[in-house]
## 1
Amino acid sequence: MVPIFGGRYWTVFSTVILIIPCVWLGVAIQNTATPYWVFIVIALMCGFAGANFASSMGNISFFFPKSRQGSALGINGGLGNLGVSVMQLIAPLVIFLPLFTFLGVHGVPQEDGSTLWLANAAWIWAPLLLLATIAAFFGMNDIASSKASIASQLPVLKRFHLWLLSLLYLATFGSFIGFSAGFAMLSKTQFPDVNILHLAFFGPLIGALARSAGGMISDRLGGVRVTLINFIFMAVFSALIFLTLPGSGSGSFIAFYLVFMGLFLTAGLGSGSTFQMIAVIFRQITLNRVKQEGGTDEQAQHEAVTETAAALGFISAIGAVGGFFIPKAFGTSLAMTGSPVGRHESVPRVLHRLCLCHLAGLWP
């Protein structure tokens, strides 16, 4: 959408519209008779947050040279991913505060004498979204040369590298989002005596900070090299996690927690290094293709920038699928077998092995 509407206007729209599901969610959770379909619609509207993130990755690629793409994309993506950790840290705190009583909101008394204001977890973001919208409107710029139609962006879907790199990003960013959503649930089911509420946010925090580092390191050492080494560690951590679960024994929460932090770390590093690869690889293959077809240097540069931005947006959206797939796999395994291990290979381990095979073909 950035090449069509411009980075500034699309960011303003996709930010301000998020106020609607935030306010609506705060109203819906106060009524126990709210039907399930309402929450589905709210969740779909929250998808504009993903569109905002994906478009920001494509937009920022226009502003930085190839040598700094990894750092720029890593910092932008890391700050975006930081929202997961902030949400998991702030939400459990604000629901105990009477922040919106001036709107007539009444808390729900608990058995221990405390009072919960669940609407706060949604409404607290509305004023921040409004400030972000104003900042984007007055502080962002559009690049006229980045304009492109939908038709000119769709050919990128025919590129083999788009689907290959989508798989790599699904295994890294998808793992980060999936682990962020499923870590607390998995901890609670396997270690019910441990209060995970105040510890869960550390994982997404580590992953978000690591993403920035992954992009910077890749600019210096090369994205393929960093991503390959990172996937080896991801595969090792994915295997180790099942050795820490209770199973037939007592398990070890400390070991489980530390190994999971390692998974968050490598998922973040891999997200940064994979996006550096996307920017560099697509720019180069597009330049080569246009020149082989007899295009001018100016045409080659324009198409390289356009296709790179389109690829970053598409791949970013595909990677978010992991946010559904991984928690669903854990939940299905628990329901069918009573264990997150199940009778089959875990989804993360299968993904990481596939990606190791693909990366071996990209190694220079």
## 2
Amino acid sequence: MRSILALNLLTILAPALGSAMSVDFGKRDDNVLFTYYNVGLGVCGRYNQPSDFEWNCGTHCFETITMTANGKTTTAQIVDECPTCSVGGLDLSTGLFDFFAGSLDAGEITGSWEYTT
């Protein structure tokens, strides 16, 4: 089973597309892998920007989560999907990944998250 997860902070909400894959996620996950992706038109039906705080998960479009990594915590909004992410793992916009890691050089970090909506 693959995790399909993406997040965006302070965006204008649009209707979710009905074609998004259905995956059941727990309400939280700890010590999971965070990676980043190049944004564009997401499964939730809008164009995403690299500076957006995003996490991929199509069936949970526009829900928010609270994330913690490297001693930092923030909220982000789900706007896309990631069929190659590990179970519970998150694929973040470059802006969100940079917020946690300080640069994109690491490529991946570990952290925790939980739904806030």
## 3
Amino acid sequence: MQNASTLGSVNLGRYNGLPIRLHISYLLVGVFVFFFRIQAGGDPLGNTGFILLIWLACVLVHEMGHCLTVKQIGGTNEMLVLTPFGGLSFQSFPQQAGKDLWVALSGPLLSFLGFAVAAGGLYLLDDDPMAGPLSVDKSFFSASALVVGLRLAVWINLGLTVFNLLPTIPFDGGWILHALIWPSMGDQRAWHIVRKASLATAVGILFLAITMEANGLSIGNVPLWLPLTIVAVYCFCFSAVPLSVPPGPQLGEPSNHESVQSADRLSQHIETYSTEEDPQLLDTFPSAEQTLFSPSTEQDQHQQADSAVDDVLQCVHDRGLASLTQAQRKVLQEAAVRYRSRSPK
């Protein structure tokens, strides 16, 4: 059974222990490319397969940039789901604005490097580096496999660079924007700004698509409004949903003995896991003393404690265990003690 993170993707295997999966949206891209390659003539099936292969390689390089940066800053990579516009990386690393910025920038930087290398290779081969793959001109695929691959790499890497610099989630630009404004605004307010920027970007791209359609602009036989509309819908779907799923059952109300055991394991993990407290995270979550501030009744005390645990669990879901401050770890340790005291004997 697939969970939420693997739903709609197929397993490609592992690389150095990292599970790599392919999102089903690649099938839609394949249908899109195949349709327009039929109109262009030549070998539509072979050309489509070659385009998707180079596309997948470029996306993999893009995401490897993120993964390598995460490892360099002391984090861990848990899973990678490749999508046509980049990927969904499931990672855990100490959350700081500077580290977030480098992790987010590493993908577009590597894609731009891929663009420069491919364009330079075509220049050395005395070829036009900006020859369009969607053109009705059949000569694009009439060259050698190396030249065609470099031509495709130029455009795909350029597209990955440009789109992932847009200030919208799920593109890297949304995370870049968050990292830039996080120190001055705080984590939660920064994400609120990013969500607004994402919706504004989606509307802007959609308006651009309408303008392109009204003027009949196209690249070869591909009307420009179509890919722009797809990107706008893609941005809107991600920016219109919550950034994280709600946490599960409240820690104050264990439903069975398994939940108590889970709390014990989490408490043991926290006790053996130590990181320096990040002052930038303290403005996001209240301290243990602030959270458990002198409630008037025992019921109020439990409700406030459970609410604090929910906030910390959401932080674990969004950022990983390594991002927790000492105060947040103390909240979870106290919750584990409450679990054990409430468990049936």
